[in-house]
């Protein structure tokens, strides 16, 4: 049975890998031009092989652009040091419920503290994943449920070259095969010596091989095959060479998270990426840089021409003496040959291709704000709207991936709380009896989506302000508090800067009472002045009487 299962998994992995062979060919070409250390360039991982790959790169601009684009994606979706999502009650009537709000905020703080625990490796996993997103279009991250005193979960970046997968009818991954290398020592640590194949056991017994010799393993995760299983997915590890099942179990959620930059085929879960779109420009940039370097070399160290009249040895080193360089008439017999090349044209061509590369990766939009830091709020909102129109269709797929990530995190910590491994704040009855909690993204990308509405609100507010010059009563038609809240939300202001609405109402009521008392005092003062003015007249009238 075990051997049969291992053979089935090996066959399924091979089938899915053959289905994406066209994509693999494109990815290898992108890797050769723009990602020299990618596994798509070959299986060799020695320093000699790496030097050979790097030697093929004539300029670093495309690789730097890729790295900047990956950093921009990270800053848009999961900016370090920022709480890029929140939790809120599903029932909108509970949004202002203090007990529900406190619970959601407590859970959010706990999730971020565990997520950014150094042992969890969140940034170390998602950073490289977004690099592959921008180059190949498909990132992959594995979330492992940890046991013991460490962080509740461990994040691992999984190179696209290792993993093949298929999706369900909603387009979400439900079957994953990850083929990767493990040493005999690693296999024994994870699965136990008794689960190893004979070849792995022999390597384990050899001190020279136990930590050096690698064996191919496959981790297969797919919908459960038995209705009796308490898990949603089967999880199986096999030794490919030995065709042996090393571990057979299950998982409550899909531990592998994937997405796509943009799919082109409903049958396959892969698609295009900025790296694929920029491939022609990257090739052109490499060629232009190579030509520019050749032209510059000829200009700096030109080819020398020597007259037939010259006799002797030519020494063109600095400060050297060259005998016979001039004839008796003073004519120079040695000199550089003018090749007629134009190095500046080569550099201009290189910059043209580089601009195309920046455009493919969207860097021109990211530079728009940085190049004009003194913009007004309206100009910033306009740029934000433009960036949103370009980025949202693509990066909303990445938010869906993050949503599945957060759902798995919450499921893991809830299970650990039930087992007594960790402590969670008690869920209020209003949430437990209601619809529970929901996810709300507060990342810079989420702010971009709000820019259009915020811009319209601010324009409407300015228009009302201008109309109020002619009729002040028109200002009463606008809820200025809500306008301020929405503007702050669009700019990403921290919720803590806003005073509590009850406090605001109390402050305004106190201000109104102070104004009323002041008005009463002024009225009393005016009455006193009037009495003081008529007092002499009243006195004269009394005396006359």
The largest β sheet comes out as: 5 strands, antiparallel
Mean pLDDT: 83
- Looking at how many chains there are and whether they match, the oligomeric state comes to single chain
- The end-to-end distance, rounded to whole angstroms, is 129 Å
Overall 3D form: flat
Query: Tally the helices: what do you get?
Result: 18
Strand content: 5-15%
Flag low-confidence runs: none
Sequence of strands across the biggest β-sheet = 4-5-6-7-8
How does this model look, in words?
It is found in: Virion. It holds the Pfam family Head-tail_con. This is Phage head-tail adapter protein. InterPro entries: Connector_podovirus. Keywords: Viral genome packaging, Viral release from host cell. This protein has 545 residues and is of the alpha+beta class. Among the domains are: 212 residues, no CATH class; 49 residues, no CATH class; 37 residues. Helices cover 52% and strands 13% of the residues. The protein has 18 helices and twelve strands. Strands 4-5-6-7-8 form a five-stranded antiparallel β-sheet. A three-stranded antiparallel β-sheet has the order 3-2-9. A two-stranded antiparallel ribbon has the order 1-12. A hairpin with a 5-residue loop joins β4 and β5. α10 runs antiparallel to α11 and α12 packs across α13. It is flat. The chain starts with a helix and ends with a helix. The mean pLDDT is 83.
